[in-house]
Amino acid sequence: MDEQARAILQRVIRKIPNKKLQTALRAWDHLSSEQLESLDYAQPKWLFLENLISRCEENRLSLKDVTKLEMAYYIDNPSKGTWHAYQLFQAEGDAVSVNFTQFREQLKAHLKDVVRHVSVRTKKLEDGAVWIRIAWGDNFSKPNHLKPTYVVHYLQTSYVFVLNLMSKHKPFLYQALLLSTRHVSIKEAQLSSRSLTAMRDLLMRQYQQVFPTNQERTLKERNAPPSHPSIEKEHAECAERRHQMACEAFGDGVLPKLETAVYKLETKYRGNSNNTLNDKDELFRGVVMFSSSNLLESFRHCVSAGMAEGPVTPLLSSITQKGRNSFVITDKVPGAASQTPAHKA
Amino acid sequence: MATVKWPHFFHFSAPHSVVNTPAHRPDTRRSKSYGRSCVEPPSLFWQTPGHLTTLGHRIPTSRRAAKSHNITTKVDPEQVALLIKNEWKLSHVTPLYRFRHTQLKLYSKHLAAFIIAEKQQGVAVEVGVEAGFKVTFSAVLGIAETKEDAETVFIQVHSKPLFSADTPKAVWRGWLTCVNGDPEYLRSLPPDFVSLPLFCSSGPEYLTALVKSWFERTFDCSFGSLYLNSTMLNWLAALWTGCHPTSNIRYLKLAWNMPSQPPLDIAYTVNPQDAWELWNSIHTEDSTDDRINIEEVQLFMNGLEIHFFRHFKIYLSAGTLTKVSTALGSAHHDGKIKIGSSDYITTLLTLLTECALMKTPV
Questions:
Q1: For residue B337, which of B323, B319, B355 has the smallest C-alpha distance?
Q2: Which residues on chain A are in Cβ contact (under 8 Å) with B266?
């Protein structure tokens, strides 16, 4: 192993918590089971690393193999940074027939066309996800394996998820993705999260959808009839109505675990009618950020508990309906929608 | 009546106050306050149940607008620099018994010895090796505003490296202050008591605990956590926003926590100019003595909450206002503050002194 391979291995091992080391090395599948058992996972990291390096040298492992370890760890632990979603548009006729081998070869070739030193590693998982690790260099420097970009794409879908992409590399990745997936344009989807799974579920609708026709029946089954059919009934009806409105906006089941949503408000002041600011044409600017360990569930609970007024405002329900968590809100101008899509500058 | 947890010093302080202080009116109240025991004659306190503190009914409904003044003209800029940019955890402190600003050097030695002794409890140590800590007490002259305010005291704990020749590193900082404290209350204190009701600390929890415990033993006082309720946070939001024309507040950021399952955090950052215009549409500035009323503060916060509601239909009033911040400073309801600019330090400390005094049993 050369100096660089050791440095990267050290970096990767440091990132992995002690209790996950064994699983990560097993998933990597580059050491024999005897070698894996001979390692003491309770050792301090520096000592463990020494022993690990000697095993790697026995097996003549190289930098390439070390990057595979990092990739295996990220695949098992994707919530290690903020992922951003991108959407592909205008699929060309042959887009549906792109297979993994084609995609991989094309992507590599297109990236190498524009960036002389680039290292690309790909892996297709059982669920169809294609994981791509890109270490960027330029004409004069070797690929920087310390800050790789990760890209996850499901073939034949129009979504791409990206982690750690520097803006100077964006055009290169855009172009390579468009050419290898056979699309014409690509745009940021205004959705970002630490949870790759939540984003995927939200965009690919892999969570329990809202079926308004079924709602009424299930709700009646769940809510026992009130024992005192006077005031309690009215309360129960209100609660049920709130719950129904909450479910109509966010669904009834387990929701994708989104943590944040950001709204940039560029609207006029809307306060009490007697405030003079109401008459002004100037905007009342601000940014609202919602955060929770499960944002959509929090919203649903806010509505059903009466902390928010129903029906749910389109601003909030847009998160599930449009699969976005970043919005710019402007005032309705005649003939235009109240929410214009955000374009990050 | 619940038993009031009052420290042991009552037993010697009460007779003392009887002997040494003339029996004028404020003193009657003093003896009432420190003497809730059966030997004490029934006082005003017992006749007015519900009237628990003399300060309680004096929560101000109006305040002077925050005015910028360059505090470094009267306070050592180096000392001011220590107060800003740090996050401070707030506590309230009862008056200190026999605290003397002239004895700070002695206190430095005693506190250092106390910390070392507490750290070494049960540990066998080599005799002669002075491991550990150096403490400095210093008076920050000029922070106090009135003649009743005691001068601020700043404490630093440095850890002394055993072997290296490095200069000691500050590991803990804290200060006790009183700015524009209620003059009637301060005058009513017996002569041996100094009120520095606001304690700010920054550093490891165990050192904070040791410092507090040393103060409690030495000056017979008692500490309690100081939380900032939403009224206080509302005041700060309005006071700071009002400063915008003279000192750019850069942003007004308000944070709420909604008790949903799971809890929802909402952060609303308002453009400073727009926030000020809303404030300006509510607050009418009179030229002589610029005062702000609580009604104006509430209108301002309501104005922001309504604008938010018109968009998201979420009732912020169902949640808790947890934090207010601008470039001038930030305050968290769990009792943590940051001072962003020294120019408005007096306004902030006046407000916090008031909070701390309100918590002091009288």
A1: B323
A2: 288-290
Distance CA B260, CA A307 (A): 8
Distance CA A73, CA A76 (A): 5
Q: What pLDDT, on the 0 to 100 scale, is given for residue B163?
A: 66
Q: Which of A272, A277, A325 to mutate to test the interface with B (most CBs of B within 10 A)?
A: A277
Q: Does domain A83-203 correspond to CATH entry 3.60.90? A: yes
- B98 within some domain: yes
Q: Please report which confidence band the pLDDT of residue B230 belongs to, taking 50, 70 and 90 as the band edges.
A: very high
Query: Residues B235, B258: one domain?
Result: yes
Asked if the Cβ–Cβ distance from A299 to B278 is below 8 Å, we say no
Q: A307 and B282 in contact by Cβ < 8 A?
A: no
Segment among A237-246, B34-43, B168-177, B183-192 with least mean pLDDT: B34-43
Q: Is the Cβ of A336 closer than 8 Å to some Cβ of chain B?
A: no
Separation CA B276–CA B152 (nearest Å) = 33
ipTM over 0.85: no
Beta-carbon contacts of residue A60 (< 8 Å; ≥ 6 apart) = none
**Both B212 and B328 in a single domain?**
no
Alpha helix (H) residue ranges in A94-195: 100-114, 170-181
Task: Using alpha carbons, select from A206, A199, A205 the residue that is nearest to residue A85.
Answer: A199
Number of A/B CB contacts below 8 angstroms equals 115
Task: Express each pLDDT in A287-327 by its tens digit.
Answer: 999 999 999 999 999 999 999 998 899 999 999 989 999 99
Overall fold of domain A212-340: Ubiquitin-like (UB roll) (3.10.20)
Instruction: Say whether pLDDT at B58 is over 70.
Output: no
Of A270, A293, A307, the CB nearest to B314: A307
pLDDT at residue number A87: 94
Question: Domain extents for chain A?
Answer: 3-76, 83-203, 212-340
- Within 8 A of A276 by CB-CB distance, chain B residues are 281
pLDDT, tens only, B2-14: 444 444 444 444 3
User: How many other CB atoms sit within 10 Å of the CB of residue B70?
Assistant: 11
What pLDDT score was predicted for residue A226? 52
Q: Are A242 and A304 in contact (CB under 8 A)?
A: yes
Within 8 A of B261 by CB-CB distance, chain A residues are: 297-298, 301
Report residues of chain A scoring pLDDT below 70. Answer: 206-229, 273-276, 333-345
Burial (0-12, 13-18, 19+ Cβ within 10 Å), A284: buried
Report yes or no on B282 lying in a domain.
Answer: yes
Chain B residues in contact with A246 by the CB 8 A cut-off are: none
According to the model, what pLDDT value does residue B119 have? 82
Cβ–Cβ < 8 Å for B304, B254: yes
Q: How far is A327 from chain B (nearest CA, A)?
A: 13
Q: Do A308 and B313 touch (CB under 8 A)?
A: yes
Contact A90, A183 (CB under 8 A): yes
The boundaries of the domain holding residue B282 are 230-333
More confident position, B292 or B24: B292
Residue B112 lies inside a defined structural domain of this protein: yes
Nearest CA in chain B to A331: B311
Where residue B149 falls among pLDDT bands split at 50, 70, 90?
very high
Please report the pLDDT score of residue A16 as a whole number.
92
Compute the nearest-CA separation of B256 from chain A (Å). 10
**Contact list, A263 vs chain B (CB under 8 Å):** 311-312
**Assigned domain for B348 exists:** no
pLDDT-above-90 percentage for chain B: 61
